[in-house]
Amino acid sequence: MPEGGGIIKRTLYKLFEPVLERISRRLANKLILLFTIIIILVVTSLTFISYGMLRKESVNSSISSTRSNLLLVGRNLESYLDGIGQLSLPQISYDEFNYAILHESEDYGSKMYVEDYLKNLYFSRSDLEAIYLYVIKEHKYYYVTKENYNITVRVVEHPPIENLPWYKRALASPFNRSYQSLLKERTPEESQGDYPINSDKSFMGYHRLLRSIVTREPQAVLSLYFNNSVTNEIMKDIPFSEGEHLMYISPDNEPFAVDDREFYLQSEQAGLLQQLTPAQGGRLTWSDNEQKYLVMYDISQKEGWKLVKPIPYKQIYEAATTTRKLSYSIGLLFLIVSVILVSFISNRITNPLKNLSLQMKRFSTGSFDAEAAVEGNDEIAYLSRHFNKMVEKTNELINERYKMKIVEKNAVLKALEAEINPHFLYNALQAISTKALKNDNDDIVEMVDNLALTLRYCISGRDVVQAREELKHIERYLALQKARFGSRMQVEYDWNESLLELRIPKLSIQTLVENCIKHALEKVSNTVTIRIEAHITPAHSVISVLDDGPGITEKRLQQVLSSLQIQWEDRGGEGTEEGDNESIGLKNLNTRLKLLYGEEAALVIASDEHGTRMDMRLPRGGLGQHV
């Protein structure tokens, strides 16, 4: 810190030392002092800055007023365009007018009807500068304009207009119309073949394509050219000051009324028109090479015409510039004072915390003999004392944890010893199989081998297996059951080859097969067919186990389905009824499906007097979608 700052710090310390001695007894008092000083500084600064904020608020009110004016004028312009659309369409005389267009070249009466119609149309509006009616099949147009205070109708030969841009737009428009801007300079290619229009007197052309009612083929094009009288009258209601601009833009971003053509061209090249979207809320900030603008605009809801008013930010904030400079000066002064005060007070607060932090760092690196110095009776001293107690308790917990590790290792050893028993049983079965093989007892050999492989599959540590492995296990399991039930048990398979690699919970199919045996084979003495199949639906891979046994009673089926809705951790541990024991395997399987595959997986059971069907539905995404 500079020498001058050190002098100020020492002077302040001497002045406030008695007060600080009393305040420093409690951390809360220190923080209160700190935040009180900050609040005083902030409030004082805001008091001086509020003048500038009020000025800015007045500017915002002016912007709100501009937005309202734009909305009102935009609606008036939209009504003006609607009136033009109504004007361009023959109302009750459409059939007569269409007939006259078709026969005007060969019928003098039809020609006079067309001329009278165009004259009446011209007289109906004071803002009409000229009217053109182009007859497509004749390649000529009727031209109506005022010459020496007389309304004159002329017929002029004209080349085809198919390549004119405004004709193409009208042809493609669902409303059979197009607008033509006369403000934007056109290339020779664009103006070639167009009507001879004086763009100094007209600002817009409106073209209506007239089609045949029967064939819908284009018959003629009615073109109306309007002067600036109406738009000037409507737009004069918008507040307009020096430096501001005003533009009326079509939905295709063509200018129809601008106060400064150079500014329009500059904004178009800079991409301003593409940013005027409803998503901007009628207001955005834009800058050219010289200055920054607040662009206020209104987009008509019906067709998307844009009324745009860019306002320079320099003009908006001109009144607040002086106040802002003054606020910066005052804020800088108070900032310097705040830094000095905060630095002085924070050092008094943080020194004890630094000592406590150092001891915590030693403790975190494994030095469990760390001990913080306790000074005073404030909150930091309280934390230091409890930190020391925490270190003491930690040492005690470490000793207890060491003892628990020893107990845990002993438990692991006992668990490993428990794993020896299944392997011993598997080895014993292999010895029995070898002995039976030597004595030519092939049936016993096959049964023991199947039992041994089944045991090995059951005690394997995997929870999820491929469907191919589960099916091999089911074949061995059913071979053992075949020895029990003989020819009464018939098994059929219908498994989609693409699902052999499907990953499913281990012993899931066996659970379903066991229910078929218990509720079908064990209940009757006749032959029962168990069918195992798998197929694909748009949303699931479905594994089904079916039997043609007597089925499950309606009451029992409802009990089983209700039990599937109970969360596994909510099941009763005591007093379980026999029926619940029978369905515990299904509840277990349903819970495993939910845990592995999510809520889209399900176990669906249906039964009647013709048999039982159990579907295991797995989402098509497979196990990776959830786990």
TrEMBL record:
CDD domains per record: HAMP
Broad class of where this protein is predominantly found: membrane
Keywords: Cell membrane, Kinase, Membrane, Phosphoprotein, Transferase, Transmembrane, Transmembrane helix
Topology in membrane: Multi-pass membrane protein
GO MF annotation, one: phosphorelay sensor kinase activity
Signal peptide residues on this chain, from the entry's feature table: none
Pfam families: HAMP (PF00672), HATPase_c (PF02518), His_kinase (PF06580)
Gene Ontology annotations for the cellular component aspect, listed alphabetically: plasma membrane
UniProt entry tagged with the keyword Transcription: no
Domain HAMP: 347-399
InterPro entries: Bact_2-comp_sensor_kinase (IPR050640), HAMP_dom (IPR003660), HATPase_C_sf (IPR036890), HATPase_dom (IPR003594), Sig_transdc_His_kin_internal (IPR010559)
Subcellular compartments: Cell membrane
Stretches that traverse the bilayer: 31-54, 326-345
Protein name: Histidine kinase
Organism: Paenibacillus jilunlii
Phylogenetic classification of the source organism: Bacteria, Bacillati, Bacillota, Bacilli, Bacillales
